[in-house]
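Duplicate of #3305? Posting structure anyway:
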């Protein structure tokens, strides 16, 4: 999971581009400062990522059950 998180962070513009993160059952939900910095094709190409949804002002990365929560916890340790 750490490798996936590092690749996601890099593809969304780094930790400095992440305002906040949370999750639902299957998705890592990011509030980004500047969505234009995101390389969506790169995010979708990460092994373990099932898809990307942009909704409600959030950039959501579909990871699957339990993985989204693990990813959120890892991201939070890097952005706080």
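Output from current build:
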């Amino acid at each position: 999971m750490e490798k996936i998180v590092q690749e996601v962070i890099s593809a969304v513009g780094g930790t400095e581009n992440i305002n906040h993160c949370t999750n639902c059952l299957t998705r890592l939900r990011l509030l980004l400062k500047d969505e234009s910095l995101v390389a969506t094709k790169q995010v979708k190409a990460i092994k373990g990522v099932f898809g990307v949804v942009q909704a409600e002002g959030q950039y959501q990365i579909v990871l699957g059950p339990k993985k989204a929560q693990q990813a959120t916890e890892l991201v939070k340790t890097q952005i706080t």
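Confirmed duplicate; merging threads. The chain is about 35% helix and 30% strand. The CA atoms of residues 8 and 14 lie 8 Å apart.
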